[in-house]
Every structure is written in structure tokens, then in C-alpha cells.
Design brief:
Shape: elongated
GO molecular function, one term: metal ion binding
CATH superfamily: Metal-sensitive repressor, helix protomer
Pfam family, one: Trns_repr_metal
Distance between the termini: 29 Å
Largest sheet: none
Family: Belongs to the FrmR/RcnR family.
Protein name: Metal resistance protein
Low-confidence stretches: none
CATH architecture: Up-down Bundle
Number of domains: 1
Strand content: under 5%
Number of strands: 0
CATH class: Mainly Alpha
Number of helices: 3
């Protein structure tokens, strides 16, 4: 199997560990009877961390794996690949 680690993976791991910590806090907050507002704020932090990790992973994949698979293309044929990368920014 090929090693598929990329430059962004340590950052993704860091984000996911941060989300893991936030999620543990949410569980503790619920068990401790904290306010719904406090819990909702922590859940929002979890969502943001996971979403950012996903976005980083997808963009990294597009920038490296897709480029590697497609290979060198003449400028006039790169349009669809470049458009796909642009639209992925809205994930």
C-alpha cells in the first residue's frame, strides 16, 4: 500500500484532537448539568474543528492526489480540473 501522508495531515490531526477535547468537554458539561447555551457553544466548536479538518483534507487531496492522477495537462484542457478546485472552496 502506498504512503498517502501529506504535508497537511499533522494539521488535520491537531484539529481533530482539538475537536476530541471539545467533545469530551461537552459530555462532561452535560453530565455536570451545565447550561444549554454553554453546551451549544462547545458543540459549535466541535463542528467547526471537524469541518475545518474535512475541508483541509479535501483541498489537500485535490491539490496532490488529483493532480498526480490527472498528470500534466495542456493549459487549454485544465479548465474542468481548475473549476473543480475552485468550487471545492465552498465546501
Amino acid at each position: 500500500m502506498t504512503d498517502r501522508r501529506h504535508f497537511s495531515h499533522p494539521d488535520i490531526v491537531k484539529r481533530l484532537k482539538r475537536a476530541e477535547g471539545h467533545l469530551r468537554s461537552v459530555v462532561a458539561m452535560i453530565e455536570g448539568g451545565r447550561s444549554c447555551l454553554d453546551i451549544a457553544q462547545q458543540l459549535h466548536a466541535v463542528e467547526k474543528a471537524v469541518a475545518q479538518a474535512k475541508r483541509t483534507l479535501i483541498h489537500d487531496h485535490l491539490d496532490h492526489c488529483l493532480e498526480e492522477t490527472v498528470g500534466p495537462l495542456p493549459r487549454e484542457k485544465r479548465g474542468p480540473v481548475n473549476e473543480f478546485k475552485q468550487i471545492a472552496k465552498y465546501l
